[in-house]
Design a protein that fits this description.
Layout lengths: L3 E10 L2 E11 L4 E5 L6 H8 L7 E6 L2 E2 L5 H7 L1 E3 L12 H7 L9 H6 L2 H20 L15 H13 L5 E5 L7 H18 L2 E5 L3 H7 L2 E6 L2 E6 L1 H5 L2 H8 L5
Parallel strand pairs: 3-8, 3-9, 6-7, 7-8
Antiparallel strand pairs: 1-2, 1-4, 4-5, 9-10
Bound molecules: adenosine-5'-triphosphate.
């Protein structure tokens, strides 16, 4: 059984059909790309998968469970973490606190435990700290633990955002254009980082990306959409030479 099974997914915004009968089956442990021209519906598919929108039609089944009706934090609880096209960090909290805070949804203590500083509270907080420091070490961020993200270069902010997503120990990591806004050295770092995370944590990754270099170096399979519908799928080599894909990106006159 696939880890993520999306069938007949359709999303309408008023008269606009942003996603149209979209299907995908993502196997556990794979690293899969989702590409397509601007406005093709990629982020909408991620927003549906992570519970930000409820689909007009269709089903999203994650780890055997239909996610319809679940709120984003419940979907996070099932093991889906994501990053955003425009980095979303708490810029006035330290890097360490950004990573700590995302784990609180599963802290296992209530407000009275926190108020009375019970053993349950102290142990849960210790666990959160230890995961956060382990991740900072693993992702070469320890030196920046006490910095505010807004004071870091963009490439490091992206790294912090990925570390924060990883702090919930997801089964599936959704990366929405992780290379957006990065310079070429940072793109190389990102390729290394995502490849390393995939291997080290044996995690399933689904990635939207415009930079072909990133997609082609990392993904074993790619799905291409245009106007909300799948137009091609296959290996990077197959996709690169598919005339339908070239036409979608460049228009008829360039073929
Ligand atoms: N909340 C919304 N309300 C209305 N229309 C929306 C909404 N979200 C997305 N759309 C529209 O749906 C279409 C698909 O948008 P989406 O952001 O999913 O595309 P995308 O493939 O991620 O594009 P890009 O590569 O530029 O990020 C676009 O026409 C967009 O304007």
């Amino acid at each position: 059984m696939a880890l993520l099974e999306i069938s007949n997914l359709t999303q309408k915004f008023g008269g606009l059909q942003a996603v149209s009968d979209f299907n995908v089956s993502i196997e556990e442990g794979s690293l899969v790309g989702l590409i397509g021209p601007n406005g093709a519906g990629k982020t909408t598919i991620f927003n549906l998968t992570s519970g930000f929108y409820q689909p007009t039609e269709g089903h999203i089944v994650f780890n055997g469970r239909d996610t319809r009706g679940l709120r984003p934090h419940q979907i996070t609880g099932l093991g889906i973490a994501r990053t955003f096209q425009n980095i979303r960090l708490w810029h006035d909290m330290s890097v360490l606190d950004n990573i700590r805070v995302s784990q609180h949804y599963r802290m296992g203590y209530n407000v009275w435990d926190a108020f009375l500083r019970t053993r349950r509270y102290v142990e849960a907080e210790r666990g959160i700290d230890s995961i956060a420091w382990d991740l900072l070490d693993a992702m070469d961020l320890r030196d920046y633990a006490n910095e505010l993200p807004k004071n870091l270069p963009y490439g490091l902010q992206r790294r912090v955002e990925i570390a924060r997503a990883m702090s919930i120990r997801p089964k599936l990591l959704l990366l929405d254009e992780p290379a957006a806004g990065l310079n070429s050295a940072d793109v190389e770092d990102l390729i290394r980082l995502v490849g390393w995370i995939h291997r080290e944590f044996n995690i399933t990754i689904w990635m939207i990306e415009h930079q072909m270099k990133v997609v082609m170096s990392l993904c074993s399979e790619i799905k291409v959409i245009d106007f909300g519908a799948t137009i091609a799928e296959g290996t990077p080599d197959h996709i690169q030479s598919d005339p339908t894909v070239i036409k979608a990106y460049l228009g008829d006159e360039n073929i």
